[in-house]
Amino acid sequence: MSTTPTEAILVLEDGRTFRGESFGAIGETIGEVVFSTGMTGYQETLTDPSYKGQIVVMTAPHVGNTGVNDEDFESKRVWVDGYVVRDPARVSSSWRSQRTLDDQLANDGVVGISGLDTRALTRHLREQGSMRGGISSASTDVDALLAKVQDAPSMKGASFLADVTTDEPYVVPAQGEKKHVVVAIDLGLKGMTPRRMAERGVEVHVLPATATFEQVAELAPDGVFMSNGPGDPATADHQVEVLQRVLAEGIPFFGICLGNQLFGRALGRGTYKLTYGHRGINQPVQDLTTGKVEITAHNHGFAVEAPVEGTFDTPYGPARVTHVGLNDQVVEGLALLERPGFSVQYHPEAAAGPHDAAYLFDRFVDLMSDHKDKVNA
Amino acid sequence: MPKRTDIESVLVIGSGPIVIGQAAEFDYSGTQACRVLREEGLRVVLVNSNPATIMTDPEFADATYVEPITTEFLEKVIAHERPDALLPTLGGQTALNAAIKLDEAGILEKYGVELIGASIEAIDRGENRESFKAIVEGLPPEWGAEVAASVICHTMDDCLAGVETLGGYPVVVRPSFTMGGAGSGLAYDEADLHRIAGTGLALSPTTEVLLEESILGWKEYELEVMRDKADNVVIVCSIENFDPMGVHTGDSITVAPAMTLTDVEYQRLRDIAIGVIREVGVDTGGCNIQFAVNPEDGRIVVIEMNPRVSRSSALASKATGFPIAKIAAKVAIGYTLDEIPNDITAETPASFEPTLDYVVVKVPRFAFEKFPLADDTLTTTMKSVGEAMAIGRNFSEALGKALRSLERKGASFTWAGEPRDKAELLEIVRRPHDGRIGEVMEAIRAGATPEELFESTSIDPWFLDQLFLVQEVATQVREAVELTPALLRRAKRHGLSDAQIGELRGLREDVVRGVRNALGVRPVYKTVDTCAAEFAARTPYHYSSYDEETEVHPREKPAVLILGSGPNRIGQGIEFDYSCVHAALALTEAGYETVMVNCNPETVSTDYDTADRLYFEPLTLEDVLEVYHAEKQAGPVAGVLVQLGGQTPLGLAAGLEAEGVPIVGTQPAAIDLAEERGAFGQLLTDAGLPAPKHGTATTFPGAKRIADEIGYPVLVRPSYVLGGRGMEIVYDEQSLATYIENATEISAQRPVLVDKFLDDAIEIDVDALYDGTELFLGGVMEHIEEAGVHSGDSACVLPPITLGTEDVERIRVSTEAIAKGVGVRGLINIQFAMSAGVLYVLEANPRASRTVPFVSKATATPLAKAAARLMLGESIAELRAAGVLPAEGDGGLLPDDAPVAVKEAVMPFSRFRTYEGTYVDTLLGPEMRSTGEVMGIDTRFGNAFAKAQAGAQNGLPTRGRVFVSVANPDKRHMIFPVKRLADLGYEILATAGTATVLRRNGVEATVVPKISDHPSERTIVEMLRAGEVDLIINTPSGGESGATGRVDGYEIRTVAVGEGVSSITTIAGLAAAVQGIEALLEHSIGVKSLQDWAADLQAAR
């Protein structure tokens, strides 16, 4: 480290400023600043499309220790719009590593900052809420950056679906015997999700976010899936309409993350923005149907409004909250009681994160099997 | 699923004396468990033979039995208390093994006691190698869990065949059911195999060892897991070892969280851990599981799991803020994790996985200097006696802090002088040993590359790069034109101390500090909050970092900083933590804000709810001054308490005072007066108190002059030490010369003390309180071994059994004169020797001593609590009125029917071997080598002594063969006790000389040849190995019997260690043993709780 590192600044919309050193690409970036508490899985985080539009602060100080490999990408590229790390690794150590994180970020043009008090930043976001911010290693003019940050659009009302969704439909074949066909609407789909279904004998047809109900129905799926994704769920009106027709037809449905929020909207519930969201891989969620607690991966800034206890009425019959976050009682899962449809706000596909909730994919498969039996009976 | 309602009382078993592999961490876990269970309204019955623990304080349980942890005594307690349940998972391997034995003996069934926390079946599945292997191999294949290829052996022939099966040497030998890896090791050839597997078979209670393929050099990980009865499982912490496979995890530098795993690999370990725990069937509670990962391809080998709270659990609790023992106790009585709040956030539940925004580094502390002949290679047998932990915002900061927390010269990185030759260093670091990390740094300075170092050490390249980073920062500091704020901040952020910066710049430490303060480069204090700041923390558990924002809250109440005792070491252990914890409890009650500063993760003092605030920081002048500064800014500070944590805080007193920090209680000048030979001698002369003739010297001629004047033998030692470090009895000029030559730390400031050694004296230890006008004699302890054996290694008895009332009165008067003369405010410990009717003063220490907890328990008086309040201004009269001290009387004026308490030391000899593979010698001497102690308490001496022996190691045999071989001067005094043993039915074996003396006195003894006789018959050593001898009485030969006598004695004693046969090495010890054996044979020994003893004592007072 004989060369002097380039200075960098991070400016939040309320004027709080942090100084550090550049990391990744040199330049300037603006986005919603959020923090993630996972101690492992930076590569999965970086490539998770749900982080589009966001500058991610890692609370774990050492990031990049295991480098980057081609196997652990959750999508084709890095999506975060900025990266904040206290102590980036200087070397990679893993038998699977193919390049350093610094190189990957520089190649993908992701502007980062390092060496700052990430805990102070996290505490600020916790108290003041997630907010817009900017990183610059091109200029250290705080006032200029602050003005740009304050001019930038807010996450509320933002849509990034067009950026993250697939251009063309594609198929992930079932492993082993093919049991079901599922249409997955890609709102920012992570690679692990169709893999988890494929492992269970599901052939997954991935369609772009703009897919119409007719395009879905044409594939005569046994089930429909809506993925995670970035932005404000209140802007995804088209997908909510598609989902409402799926539910009206009684096609089994499973949603994750944004898919859960859209399911909530389809059932007539509202969504709201959390102060600072849930981003990490240690979040306790209780399955209210069994009482069991699972440790789960989260990445959401919005949540569904629904009563945690009892049932509520929807156009598709009664529904209930099935999962709740034990840290703050946020709704983490929904299900229709008389029709085949359910969703969770968190990430049963993990990547990164614990595998405690993988049973939900089994639940989806069972739901489709039961539905088939009923239809056939 | 809330708390069970069918359990009203719980028996908790502690871990007994502190030994290597099982130390203060189980006091921490047991104390937490007792607290929780009582808060839940359960009656807690505790059995632990170790008086130095917090958990055995009468206030932590309803009935506290300081009794031996043996089936016999546990049954007595169970019969008396009739508990509903037994919780065996918080007292280490000792408690778990005790529970297994109680179950096997049918005692649990007989008294209807339910085992909670773990079932016998689960313990067996977890610890039995075959069933464990089957469990791992039965996991889903996609997880990739394997066990190392292995063979179970029950005989040496099995072992030889086993090596063939595994494809040859090296192989790892692991005995089943031993703690801390005792008896395990790596065999490179057949000779190694005979030695290691032979002992292993003997050590294993099931005569079973496992031979395993070598996975040396693999990455090593540990996960701490918690499960409740609803099958909710969380991983509390991941730990990665800096030292790769081959070094016991207790002896490794370890890091939390794991640093070099991707999420894919980490989640695989998590899945395996949870899968194993479910299959083993650990119903509730904490357990840990260890993994080895091949750095070349990621192959995972599951090494072992402990179905109980372990040493790593204590570390993980401190590292994350997740109180494993407390939660384990709660889930054991029926709660589920989601029903238990997270103390730190108060709002979120315990059913989550802590996430860290800092790095924790633990470094072991060794005691090889106490065993100069021992092989210091680190292996799979744990050898460290303590550990220090440090927290930083990154690895290099935490590592630097951890290394300086060891308080050992040379432990921190040094850049002084030229490094040795690179090739030589690369060879040296190949062998894991204490201080290797420093030599790796030296090799970096000598130009070694990361690749060369990885080839030599297998230390992960990421860790090695961190050392290169520190080296680069050091170079920048050395070469910079001036110390700028940015450079200083960078140095601090990578763990460099003021002293290290000073060394690099050629400046004094205090000058660096002055510059740093002037430039405003100071640490901030962050909070350990379990959640990386996602939620607000309620618990002020802090660590320093050179970051931007501090989290110390302002306060109104005056603060008292209590300095702890740092890493455990021989001579400074858990006893001092006991006193610090008591001070915190007493001063919080007295209205102060207590602030604990310590760096030992094993202790109760570093529990976040012991003091009002906790700073997990190194105990160096720099770090303590910064904590003081931070607290000073938060509110008023009444002062710093240095008297209770042993030599560590005492050594900081003068430096703190010089920086204007107020010290409460006995002032640094008074501490100096007691340590400074000349001034203290003058004090004694003025008070008319005799001391053995003495002098101080800095050279051999000086020492010789003194020795010639006062006559040999003389006791020589360096000044300012604890635990008799470097202390020796020297019989002649030649030995004196050798001693001075080898004593490296002699200087004008640190001279050698030369004292007349009093042969045949009775040694007496006193702990007392003094408030400036009144003395409270805490207790007078009479040593069982004669003077010359370090007080920490000698058994002692309280009240003194051979001293008369006038003797105690003389001791009182002398103690008062010294306390007054020194200017004590608080505790003082004085050692006296009674020789030919004269009471000599050996030394005085104006601080809490090792015996404070023992005395407190034996006399039902909380001495440390009283001391803390005295130091902050209250008087003894006020404390008597407040009920802290008894209204009348003291520890010198005990009623006639007061119980007799015996303290016995526990020695670590079985852990240490010489390079040739034999055990180190077991002789007691002036250098302290014991790691722990037990207490026996009963109505009379014999009973109490027998209990102490039963609690300590092997216990006293009540029948069988006794081998007697004593040195000539001792022959006279052994006749009566040996005759008594013969009368009690023991068969006496003796060497020729001893047998002749016995025969002439009417005691028949079978003559057994010594090895040095090169006999055709079987020697004593062979008989010992065959298990034909039950007790050894062997006193060391002086000069007359020559070298062969010494060699014989050595061989006998060391084989006895290997075979687990008690060996008595002093005549005084023999007399005590005879009384103990008599008591055992009468079958009159009962059990009684400390609470009942205290009630009796109170009534008698």
Concise structural overview:
Chain A has helices at 42-46, 101-107, 118-128, 142-151, 161-164, 192-198, 213-218, 237-248, 258-266, 359-376; strands spanning 7-12, 17-24, 28-36, 54-58, 62-63, 82-85, 87-88, 111-114, 131-136, 170-172, 180-186, 202-208, 223-226, 253-256, 271-287, 293-304, 311-312, 319-325, 331-336, 341-344. Chain A has 377 residues and is an alpha/beta fold.
Secondary structure layout:
The complex is a heterodimer of chains A (377) and B (1101).
Chain A: E1 7-12, E2 17-24, E3 28-36, H1 42-46, E4 54-58, E5 62-63, E6 82-85, E7 87-88, H2 101-107, E8 111-114, H3 118-128, E9 131-136, H4 142-151, H5 161-164, E10 170-172, E11 180-186, H6 192-198, E12 202-208, H7 213-218, E13 223-226, H8 237-248, E14 253-256, H9 258-266, E15 271-287, E16 293-304, E17 311-312, E18 319-325, E19 331-336, E20 341-344, H10 359-376
Parallel strand pairs in A: 3-4, 4-6, 5-7, 6-8, 11-12, 11-13, 13-14, 14-20
Antiparallel strand pairs in A: 1-2, 1-9, 2-8, 3-9, 10-12, 15-16, 15-18, 17-18, 18-19, 19-20
Helix pairs in contact in A: 8-9
Chain B: E1 9-13, H1 25-39, E2 43-47, E3 63-65, H2 71-81, E4 85-87, H3 92-104, H4 107-110, E5 114-115, H5 120-127, H6 129-137, E6 145-146, E7 150-153, H7 156-166, E8 171-175, E9 185-187, H8 190-203, E10 209-213, E11 219-227, E12 233-241, E13 254-256, H9 263-280, E14 285-293, E15 300-306, H10 311-320, H11 324-332, E16 359-365, E17 386-392, H12 395-405, H13 422-428, H14 436-445, H15 450-457, H16 461-479, H17 485-493, H18 498-505, H19 509-518, E18 524-527, E19 541-545, E20 559-563, H20 574-589, E21 593-598, E22 613-616, H21 621-634, E23 637-641, H22 647-658, H23 668-675, H24 677-687, E24 694-697, H25 700-710, E25 714-718, E26 728-730, H26 733-742, E27 752-756, E28 762-770, E29 775-783, E30 796-798, H27 805-822, E31 826-835, E32 838-845, H28 852-859, H29 863-871, H30 876-881, E33 900-906, E34 932-938, H31 941-952, E35 961-965, H32 971-983, E36 987-990, H33 992-1000, E37 1006-1007, H34 1020-1025, E38 1031-1034, H35 1042-1059, E39 1062-1064, H36 1067-1082, H37 1090-1100
Parallel strand pairs in B: 1-2, 1-4, 2-3, 4-5, 6-15, 19-22, 20-21, 20-23, 21-22, 35-36, 35-38, 36-37, 38-39
Antiparallel strand pairs in B: 7-10, 8-9, 8-10, 11-12, 11-14, 12-13, 13-16, 14-15, 16-17, 18-19, 24-27, 25-26, 25-27, 28-29, 28-31, 29-30, 30-33, 31-32, 33-34
